[in-house]
UniProtKB/TrEMBL annotation:
In the C-terminal section; belongs to the enoyl-CoA hydratase/isomerase family. It comes from Neovison vison (American mink). It catalyses: (3E)-tetradecenoyl-CoA = (2E)-tetradecenoyl-CoA; a (3Z)-enoyl-CoA = a 4-saturated (2E)-enoyl-CoA; (2E)-tetradecenoyl-CoA = (3Z)-tetradecenoyl-CoA; (3E)-octenoyl-CoA = (2E)-octenoyl-CoA. Residues 71-156 form the ACB domain. The keyword Transmembrane helix does not apply. This is Enoyl-CoA delta isomerase 2.
Amino acid sequence: MPPQNSAHGPPFRVAMAGVVGRLIRCWCRRAVGGRSRSALPSGHPALHPGCCSLKVPALQLHVSKTAMGASQKDFENAMNQVKLLKEDPGNEVKLKLYALYKQATEGPCNTPKPGVFDLINKAKWEAWNALGSLPKETARQNYVDLVSGLSSSSDSSSQGKPEAERKQAGYETVVMTSEEGITKIMLNRPAKKNALTEQMYQEIILALEAASKDDSAITVLTGNGDYYSSGNDLTNFTNIPPEGVEAKAKNSAILLRNFVGSFIDFPKPLVAVVNGPAVGISVTVLGLFDLVYATDRATFHTPFSHLGQTPEGCSSYTFPKIMGPAKAAEMLIFGKKLTAGEACAQGLVTEVFPDSSFQKEVWTRLKAYSKLPQNAMRISKQIIRSQEKEKLHAINAKESSILQERWLSSECMNAIMNFFSQKAKL
Ligand SMILES: CCCCCC/C=C/C(=O)SCCNC(=O)CCNC(=O)[C@H](O)C(C)(C)COP(=O)(O)OP(=O)(O)OC[C@H]1O[C@@H](n2cnc3c(N)ncnc32)[C@H](O)[C@@H]1OP(=O)(O)O
């Protein structure tokens, strides 16, 4: 991995030599059909608490008939309390709750370990398995204690707090807040132009899932700092696991497909507040939003050919449909960068605002919209989306699988290495 904060001086070059070396080694291994038999690396996304789409157990599982006695009542109450938590406790806590629930109702972990690509179930299995032979009664008591701690901290932390301050816990790379019927998901890596790391893709998936179930009318995606997003973080491709570059490409394609799928399936009005330049995947998924508001400072750039890559985010379908095939080709094949005005004229952007009044005007507008009848908005969106949902999922699958191959191409690898050796900036 290149150093995150240094200029591209000698240490960077040394680090890059390592990255390039690894790429070449993986490349050679692939060329001779070799495979590493190493276990999952310690930094694997499944091991990160922000990477699991977890349901709190009380919401999805029935109480086992074997959990009896006085504490059974406490246990049931605790499960009901979980449903009433005002704040998302975060994935780490959800994993603990899951594990304790399973231990309390079924005893020690008794199922086979899920496969390496089944990230969520693997994380859940590991949490349960880690409890070893903890007695059921102790697990039940620990579950009750954990929920009781969560309930009191949730009550005291939200008491007296204005809605505007209700920041959701459990996210590291995005900030999720709710105010006046609007849930805002803000990309929060301003120093890296909000480039999307694997953790960020996962957190956005989780944030969208949470927003789809909360009581807000509208959900907004925006960026912190001067960029909306510079697209995929190119270091995603330099972090090669011991399983090799093909496994990396496969996992990335799965992540991409899930990420885009969560935009296709999002059930409420979804708004992009494009606060600055947008690159790559942050542009392509805009075709799946219901409103796109942009500052006049924003630009829209999909330099896929320059990077040896191909379109994603369903843009191979949505862009020609939105702007016509000729203009779509200019963006998606030739990488033409559009100004906000051009993107608006071509139908990708709903409205452009002067940068000086952008935030004020946009939020005034959105607050008014959020007071419209929620169900009517939701149903209208669903009628519109239902007409082509299946088609969008099929396109997403196809684009992801083509990219899986592209990422293994020398065109793509060279482009990434050029970026990190500063030969090629967009
Ligand atoms: C799970 C995988 C799914 C993959 C889906 C497929 C997605 C495809 C795409 O999104 S393609 C688009 C990829 N993006 C790019 O190629 C953009 C690359 N970045 C740039 O060209 C420039 O950084 C810039 C034009 C966005 C901004 O230039 P400038 O204003 O001069 O700023 P800096 O370059 O100094 O950037 C500051 C800092 O951020 C780092 N950075 C910016 N963008 C990225 C990025 N996309 N990936 C990794 N790092 C990025 C940059 O290196 C600087 O870091 P430093 O301060 O030097 O440590």
